[in-house]
Each structure stands twice: as structure tokens, then as C-alpha cells.
Amino acid sequence: MSDSGDRTGADGAILRAAGVSKAFGGLVAVDDVTFSIPPRSIVSIIGPNGAGKTTFFNMLTGLYKPTRGQVVFDGKDITGRRPDIITSLGVARTFQNIRLFETMSAIENVLVGQHSRMKATIFGSILRTPRVRREEREVRERARETLAYAGLSEPALEEMAANLSYGDQRRVEIARALASDPTLLLLDEPTAGMNPQESARLTAFMEQLRDERGITILLIEHDMRVVMGVSERITVLDHGEKIAEGPPEDVRKEPRVVEAYLGKQD
Amino acid sequence: MSAIDPLRDRRETLAGLARSRQASRAFTGLVIFGAIVLPFFYPSGSGFIDDSTTALAYVVMALGLNIVVGFAGLLDLGYVAFFAIGAFTTGWFASAFYADANGGAGIHLFVTGPAAELPGIHMNFLLVLVAAVVLTAVAGALIGLPTLRLRGDYIAIVTLAFGEIVGRVAINGDEIKLAQDYPLTRGRQGITPVDKIDLPFVDQFTSLNLRPWYWTALGLALLTLFVNFRLRDSRLGRAWIAVREDEVAAASMGVPLVRTKLLAYATGAAFGGMSGAFLGSYLNTVNADQFEFSFSIFILAMIILGGLGSIWGVVVGAIALSFINNRLIPDVFNTWPAKVGLDFDLTELSFGIFGFLLVIMMVLRPAGLLPERRRRLELAEGVGAGEEDLYEARA
């Protein structure tokens, strides 16, 4: 793996994807994408609808097995590993259309997020040993803190997720992802359906996560104001291929990107 | 969408929480106390205690199935298999069935009374219980394995098949010989008699003195209840509900799907085995006719009637259906057809009556008699309805 650093062109990257492809039958959704994320950075993947962004995300988090290629996170090969293992290694995510456990309360959702950090066994839980008791108290306390950190108000904590407002659901989802104590956080269109003020607040929150907690963030985003404002680097996918990569100001001017978004001029 | 005001709802839950916790503790204590003293109001050999004992054994099974179906959301139509395996454990290890064991002298482990003199394998009921729990837990995990890649209806089909396989094996097991003289079952003739339970410090268990049986069943039911409550509010219990709600999200949050589901199957099955081991001894026979598909449906109907996922609801559902089946239909309502000039046995219509009850329930209280708060929401507001699934299930 010594040469993969050269291939991705970024040494000390927290995550490296090398030549990753995914085909569904004959349809190639992601085609030979090589990509890396420097630690403690915020990078974005953009691209038109159907460009393969979410498919790429699903490969990084283990929901899809790449057809070809390799994904290395924090020095460990996670290609095709189970999602729960990848999560326990330190990758957490949110979903494009919020996927909370709707009949669980906000707190319970975040408690599930801490699953991989807990140790209670089935017998320990039945006997409710002092250790299990203590762990249960700690994770509940942590869940409250995380939800407060994500900006959920106190009365909403015990509310069932389905009853929360859209903005609060987004907050709970991010808190749930943070609960697994990730080093890399993947956000799939987190500002979808938000008004400009809410988007701005979320952007600030992302920067806060990076600066205060040292979390690296990979973002899929359609809102160009958010993308251009927060990203240190942007990768552009179109038809499953990487067509451009670089800092926001360069990507913005790239003719192929303009073409992908606006269509070709004759 | 609905007239429910979420704010008011929440205020009620918050205010109700502190009050309800104490109230429910007191209520629970009262119910348990009532259940303990109940047999003193009836003659010890009475039909009522008999029916109550059976009902409590069914409560154990229903609570077990509730872990699989109610908590983890895995529809299991073959639960009778665990009743069978549990009952056979008693048949094998607590009867004269293997008369040739140990050269005809028999094997005796911590047994007293008449069983200690008989040939065959005779183990103390507590040992049988442990063996039944272990065997059924393993069987539960085994049946879980092929369903891991499946969802919803397909899981139901596989579990149904598993129940049928175990039932068939029970019927034809007299032809299956482990060594030359050790058949697996005695088919439809049944293994009988089976040792009576033999516990220290408790009265003789006989068919005329039913109180000790009742208290044993009550003890098993309370143990099951205890484990259910403890697990529901634990790391594993939350994982079960998360898997039921959204497998993809659960896996992405670090919940190992395979382990979580197998633990649900194994735990649920263990209670089926526990109850089966008890019933094997209580009914004094282990025969293949007891293990039919309809029994799986019978237990499933209990938890649907009571409220899927709701522990107290399941208890109520199990007791209600059990009494309807064993008392109301054969003893109370059975004279009704004759009164209107019809000549048939109402017990032949039991399942028709259960079906009718379920239909009524689905119309009037679709979430069950004592609905779980989650289900109530789900059914009232369509929360948690199917979503597109992108997860490629891998074992």
C-alpha cells in the first residue's frame, strides 16, 4: 500500500479510495473513482442527479460492496466490510432522506448510535450488573450532551423522532452519527429542505465539528453556496466518473463542470 | 394530518412519567401478589387452576415469540418448533423412554421419589429446564441463519417451513434411531408417562395437587417477564427495535445485524423451550400431535391480540386466548349451539372463533388490547411505513 499514497496524491489521508467502481448489472454507477480526504478537513462531492454520489457514499460506509477498487480508512482496508464494523472503526453517516428510527425518542436514536461503543452483553443486561448500570447512565448522559451540542432543545429530547420538526430530525440524525464517536463524518445532502439561515447555521456547525472535535467531514451537497463556502476541496462526479477536483475557486471555472451542470453550448 | 398536538402529548408524557412509574410499580406488585394467592381460592385439583397453569405456560411462550416478532420485527410462523424441542427435552431426559440407558439401570440425576427407581434417563426438572433452554436457543439461532438474507414475508415462509420440519420429524421420529435402541420420538403414541416435576421445598407435584404446578408456571412467567423488561431497556433491546425500524440505518449506526437478529431468535426460542419443557411434564405426554402449525398461529394470535411489542399486552393476550380456548369455548359456550337447536361441537370452531376475534380487533383496536406506544403511533400516523431498501444483505 506504500504506492497508493502516490496514486491518490495525498499523503497521510484519513480516507483513500483507489479505482473504486460499482456496477448494477450492466449499469456502471461509479466508474474508477480515485479519491482521498486529508484529515481534519471538509471536502465535498458534487455532481448532477444520478452522478453516483450516494452510491459512492454507500461503498465507503459498507452498504454496497465495490465491484472493483479499494477503500482504505485510517490505514485499514475497509473494502466491502460490514457497515457496523466500518462504523466502529470511526466512520459515521447521515442519509439523504432522513432515516431515523421513527418510533424511538431522540435520545433513544442517539443511544443506538453509541451501540458500537458500548460493552453490555445480553447476560449483563439481564442481571443489570453495576458495570452495565454505570454504562447505561453514561451513554444517556452523553446522548443528552450530543443532542444539545447538535442544537436540539431540552423538551424535544424525549419526543418520538417522527413527531419532531424537519430541522430537529436533521439535528437528531447528525447527533446520532456523532454518537459513534467518528473521525470521519459523511453527510448526504444535509441542507436539503433547509432555508438559507438554517443552511448557514449548519455550515457553521460543520466548521465547529472540524475545529473543536477534529472531525473530518465529507459532504454531498447541492446547495452551491454551502459547498463553495465550506469546502476545502471539491470533487465533481458525472455519470459515475470523476471529472474534476480541486479547491472551490478552480472547480467553479472548470469547463467540464459547467458543462455537466448547465449542458454543452453549441 | 391528525388532530394530535405534539406539545400537549409531550407534556402529558413528561408529567405522567414520574407518576406512572410509581403507580405501575404498585400495580405490578399487586398483580403478582394476586397471582400468587389465587390458587388458595380454588380447590387444588380444580379445572380453573389447570387452565391457569396452562395459561401461564402460554404467557412464557407468547413473551418469547414477542421478542422475535414484536421487538426485532422478524415474523416467525414456526414457533411451535421450540415448544416441541423443549417438550422432547423433558421426554428424553425425564421419562422411562430410553429404558435401556445405562444397561437398563437408568441414569438418575438429582431425582427423588418414584422416578429414582425407574429405568431410563431421569434428570431433575431444573437440569431439564437448562438443557431445554440451551437446545432451543441453539435451534433458534440455526433457524435464524437462513433467514438473515431475507426480509418480511420471506422470513415467515422459512420459519414456517422450519416449524413443519420439526413437526414431521416428531411424527416420524420413532423410525429415526440414534443408536440401535434410541429412537428420537415415539411419534403419535407419545412419550408417556413423563416424570413429575420434583423440586426441593415444594409440595408433591401430582395430577390432583395442581398448586405446585401453578406456582412453577408462575415462577417461569415472572422470570420471563423480568428478562423481557430488562432486555427491552438495554443496549440489545434498542438494537432490536432499531433493526425493526430500519435495518439499513441500524447497520450504519454500528448495530451488527447478524448477531442482533440471531440473539433475538435464540432468546425468543429459549422461552419456547422453557415453556415446552414444563408442559411436557405437566401434560404428562410428549406426542407429535401437539406440535402442529396451528399452535404457532395460536401463540402469534396471542401477541397480536395483546399488542405486538407490548409486554403487558402480550401477557393479557396470552391469558385471554388461553382461557377462551381452554375454558370459555369447551365449558361455557359449548351448550349454546344445542340451545338454538344445532348439533355440533363448538371446539371444532375454535380457530374460526379466534379468526373472528382477530378481525374484530383489527377493526376496533388494530394495535392490540394494550398497545405498545410505538405501535400506536405507527398505526395511527403511518410512521415507519416501508422505504426503499438499498442494503445488500450479507451474512
Summarize the structure.
The complex is a heterodimer of chains A (266) and B (395). Chain A is α/β, with parallel strands linked by helices and 266 residues long.
Give the topology:
The complex is a heterodimer of chains A (266) and B (395).
Chain A: H1 4-8, E1 15-24, E2 27-37, E3 42-46, H2 53-60, E4 68-73, E5 76-77, H3 83-89, E6 91-93, H4 106-113, H5 122-127, H6 130-149, H7 166-178, E7 184-188, H8 196-213, E8 216-220, H9 224-230, E9 233-238, E10 241-246, H10 248-253, H11 255-262
Chain B: H1 6-37, H2 47-71, H3 80-93, E1 94-95, E2 107-109, E3 121-123, H4 125-144, H5 152-172, H6 211-232, H7 235-245, H8 247-252, H9 257-282, H10 293-306, H11 311-332, H12 336-339, H13 350-364, H14 373-381
Helix pairs in contact in B: 2-6, 2-9, 2-10, 2-11, 3-4, 3-5, 3-9, 4-9, 6-9, 7-9, 10-11, 10-13
Content of β-strand of chain B: under 5%
Distance between the amino and carboxyl termini of chain B: 40 Å
Structural class of chain A: alpha/beta
How many domain units of chain A?
2
